Amino acid sequence: MTLSPDEIRAELDQILPRRTPDMKMTTMGAGSDDLEDGRRYLAATVAGGWGVPSWPAGLGGRGADPNEAKTIGTVLREYAVPDLYAYAVGLGMVGPTVLAHGSEEQQQRWLHNIASGAEIWCQMFSEPEAGSDLANLAMRAERDGDEWVLNGQKVWTSRGLYAQWGLCLARTDPEIPKHRGLTMFGIRMDTPGVEVRPLVQMNGDQHFAEVFVTDARVPLDALIGDIGIGWNVAMTVLAHERALAGESRGGGDGAARNERVPRWIQELRPTGVVGDSLWRQRMMSVHAADEVSKWTSSRAAASRNPGPAGSGAKLRKVASYKGRAYTSTDAQGAAGMLSDADGFIELVTAPSMSIRGGTDEIQRNIVGERVLGLPGEPRVDRDIPWSESRRGAR
């Protein structure tokens, strides 16, 4: 039975407090490594499937169709939903990927624990020589009886420092072209041979890490999908990652329902810029782009398979985040550069938004080639074995 917004509110009022105008929340984990608020929220909502309503009932969701899931997401913005950035890899990327490619046993093993916040996942994709060119990765996985043995290094591993599980893309056949020799694994981060080192960002966050893997053994049922189709699995992950970056996870901005002026603009009133026509034009340009981003991302989020359009959502969300951060800082004058200024964490976080989740340049390539149908860039190493292309295609 599809619930109306008022029926959803009646259910949520029993487990969640309403958001008030004075509540502020972090965005994308900026300046906060808090895990407990998110874990309490997910534990409270998992019985009703409110956190991931489109997931199957019994696996942490409620089997909602896209329209009902969108309605639930809209109503949730009225509640004190914490920043779920620490849990976003599991909720927004691993979960949908396991539903698409994982076995029934893997779904039973992992999904409810993700939805309840009991287990956090990290994303082990990028390597020192395989960032934008992800398919060039060198992490090796070799079969040894009833186990796979993994060796290599990952970097910029999202949530690596505090995750219990890692979604790890590794090379199982170096003698075929680079995109076809990859396989996806789920690996426990406390596996012997896995060493995690934090990468501290300039805003103080430790959400990213470098991971060194030496003779780490995982069982055969750790494979997500079949051997050699890891690139296809990875594309599912990345499509959901870009859509996730476009929609963000967490509660609203503290504005009352139907309030027309966004909270971030209201907070600029003490600076005096709201009464200036040029500043109003700048603020409304950001606000208009932000609204377009939200509407378009809502449409993409309604799909269980967001596809390449998620890259556009990611680009729009990044532009909105930067626009709000830089406008808020500039409105405060020189004082906006001080570390105790309002919005300082957002200011020093903003540059990273164009890098994390795939650079802006990569997203524009995807939009150009796969959405607009423009000619692709030359790829001379597509059809030669990775063992050769690794040394440089000629």
Can you characterise this structure?
With 394 residues, the protein is α+β, with helices and mostly antiparallel strands. The protein folds into three domains: 5-115, Acyl-CoA dehydrogenase/oxidase, N-terminal domain (Butyryl-Coa Dehydrogenase, subunit A, domain 1); 121-229, Butyryl-CoA Dehydrogenase, subunit A, domain 2, CATH 2.40.110.10; 235-371, Butyryl-CoA Dehydrogenase, subunit A, domain 3 (Up-down Bundle). Helix content is 37%, strand content 13%. The protein has helices at residues 5-12, 36-45, 66-76, 88-101, 104-115, 230-247, 263-266, 277-301, 309-331, 344-349, 360-371, 386-389; strands at 121-124, 140-144, 147-158, 165-171, 182-188, 194-199, 208-219. The longest helix has 25 residues, at 277-301. The chain starts with a helix and ends in a 5-residue tail after the last helix.
Secondary-structure blueprint:
Blueprint: H1 5-12, H2 36-45, H3 66-76, H4 88-101, H5 104-115, E1 121-124, E2 140-144, E3 147-158, E4 165-171, E5 182-188, E6 194-199, E7 208-219, H6 230-247, H7 263-266, H8 277-301, H9 309-331, H10 344-349, H11 360-371, H12 386-389
Parallel strand pairs: 1-4
Antiparallel strand pairs: 2-3, 3-7, 4-5, 6-7
CATH C-level class of the largest domain: Mainly Alpha
The termini sit apart by 60 Å
Number of strands: 7
Q: Stretches where pLDDT falls below 50 for ≥5 residues? A: 246-255
Question: What is the makeup of the main sheet?
Answer: 4 strands, antiparallel
Query: Within the largest sheet, what's the order of strands?
Result: 2-3-7-6
Give the averaged pLDDT, no decimals.
87
Shape, per Cα inertia axes:
globular
Radius of gyration using CA atoms only: 22 Å
Instruction: Write the element-wise H/E pattern from the N-terminal end onward.
Output: HHHHHEEEEEEEHHHHHHH
Q: Total number of helical segments?
A: 12
CATH-scheme architecture of the largest domain: Up-down Bundle
Would you identify the CATH H-level superfamily of the largest domain? Butyryl-CoA Dehydrogenase, subunit A, domain 3
